[in-house]
Amino acid sequence: MLHSMTRVSHHTASGLLSATWPLMFVTRSARLCQKSNSFFPLRSAHVVSSRGRRNMATSSDASSLLEYGRNVTNGLGRITEGIITSGKGSYVEYADGRKMLDFTTGIGVTGLGHCHPKVSKAAADQCMNIVHAQCSIAFHEPYLKLIKKLLPIMPDPSLDSFFFWNSGSESVEAALKLARTVTGRQNIICMQGAYHGRTFGAMAVTRSKTIYSKGFAPLMPGVFTIPFPFWHQLGQTPDTPESALVSQCLYQLDLLLTQQTAPSDTAAIIVEPVLGEGGYVPAPAAFLEGLRAVCDKHGILLIADEVQSGFSRTGKFFAIEYSGVRPDIMIIAKGLANGFPLSGVITRKELTNKLTPGSMGGTYAGNAVACAAACAVVDAMHEENILENVNARSTELFKALHAIKAEHPKHILDVRGQGLMVAVEFASSASPGAEHDAVAAQVGSAMASRVAKKCIERGMLILTTSVYEVVRFIPPLNISAADLAKGTEIFREAVKEVIREG
Ligand SMILES: Cc1ncc(COP(=O)(O)O)c(C=O)c1O
Fold it and tell me: Which keywords fit this entry according to its UniProt record (predicted)?
């Protein structure tokens, strides 16, 4: 189900950077917490959690520990100050007593909610058997069990060779290495607005914000970029027909393969089936089909990065299923193990048979505890009808957000996404190219970060994304209708207040 609402036109020249939310938002909320705690009052005694047990940290423990926050690298951004001590389902608790509805799921990770009992138990049990059965020493049971559970849910039966890593970025690296070595070609084509991670190869194919690569050059060479069918990127309005966006992007791909990187030098095209850090934009099926056709014609490998969109997030196990397109390589992470560090590269045995043993691997790759947790995730997704819940809650979420858009047609440009990977984009004079847009220029600036901050003040964690004014909704996949409604009401109030403030 692909949703896009398009009433207010918004022209933009793409490419300028305005991704300043982490700085502005973090420093402001940090100041608020440090100064007076007027939004998040500290409690003076032990905090009794909703489960009736005492949190370990007292406010004085917490404030003395918080001092060590100064010793944490400045390279990390943070949307709240404070210490999260526990989490259950759709909520997290801070040491100071704040209980927050979590619409971030730790950036799309805890799809089954925090500390899902089955997942936590599987990990705890595994801890008592073996924690580190290193993948170059021997197999371990959870690794092989996980393959057994994943095989039947692959978007294509050709995906039958697995390699587990720790983070999404590491799996992106491995996928790029695999593509280069099995094709004997060097170049990689990625998408404008793409995010694939912060390690060197992943950073080189990331095109969502310059903060990820600024000052870190030289980057990995041999990377080329085409636009993604997102109206902003082509300087179009939100109501531009999808077919026009798709044909523009495929035309640019044709030109690229004729003018810049010969097909015989091109190893792979890497694409997120839902552009994440680029603004939560589902790839139209016709675009993915077009990429597949080009790959087939030239022997190029198609890599689907499902790190954020996978594991039921979009209402199917994998977002690429909406198009029916077969990827040659698929990358998974995040929701796979519900918070335990685990990622994976999945491809065809025919391709991995060309690898030299030992050319891939890593000390912690495919950790036994993380694999045991992932086995429990896959089981829970089946047993608890997670896809059904995602699709039911998604319909409610889109309905609520479209209603909010209808209340503020001048301020909200677009509601889009798939399943429970959904975004609201605000018109704003802070957006790249906004000076060309009469409507955007009239309304307040930095709408997304201001709205997100108000949501946090009202007890809900929520994130922005992209260089545009976009708030993203990535709640737990098993969220109840009541908590979803509570979250959208908090968002509605926050939007109203920000608009009132101008
Ligand atoms: C689509 C996509 N690919 C790759 C990554 C990188 O994953 P990690 O942060 O686990 O390295 C992310 C992280 O947000 C992502 O969204």
Answer: Aminotransferase, Pyridoxal phosphate, Transferase
* CA distance linking residue 351 with residue 179, whole number of Å: 9
What is residue 8's predicted lDDT score, i.e. its pLDDT?
25
The model's pLDDT over 98-131, given as tens digits with 9 standing for 90+, comes to 999 999 999 999 999 999 999 999 999 999 999 9
Measure the CA–CA gap between 335 and 477, rounded to whole angstroms: 10
Mutate to test the pocket of ligand 1, among 334, 340, 364, 421 (most ligand atoms within 8 A of CB): 334
Axis-axis angle for helices 447-457, 21-35 (nearest 10): 30
Terminal-residue alpha carbon distance, the chain: 34
pLDDT at residue number 457:
97
Q: What are the angstrom distances between the C-alpha of 305 and each of 133, 141, 328, 352? A: 27, 26, 11, 18
Structure tokens at 450: 């201001």
CA of 172 to the centre of ligand 1 (A): 9
Compute the distance from residue 49 Cα to the ligand 1 centre, in Å.
32
Domains and CATH numbers, the chain: 3-112+386-501 (3.90.1150.10), 118-383 (3.40.640.10)
Q: Are the C-beta atoms of residues 475 and 90 closer than 8 Å to each other?
A: yes
For the CA of 277, the closest atom of ligand 1 is: 16
d(CA 143, CA 20): 40
Q: What is the pLDDT of residues 209-250, one digit of tens each?
A: 999 999 999 999 999 999 999 999 998 888 999 999 999 999
* Residue 311 Cα to ligand 1 middle (Å): 14
How many angstroms separate the Cα of 487 from the Cα of each of 89, 102, 277, 292, 480? 14, 9, 22, 38, 11
Calculate how far, in angstroms, residue 42's C-alpha sits from the geometric centre of ligand 1: 34
Listed in sequence order, the residues at least 6 apart from 438 whose beta carbon sits closer than 8 Å to its beta carbon are: none
Which pLDDT score, from 0 to 100, does residue 150 have? 98
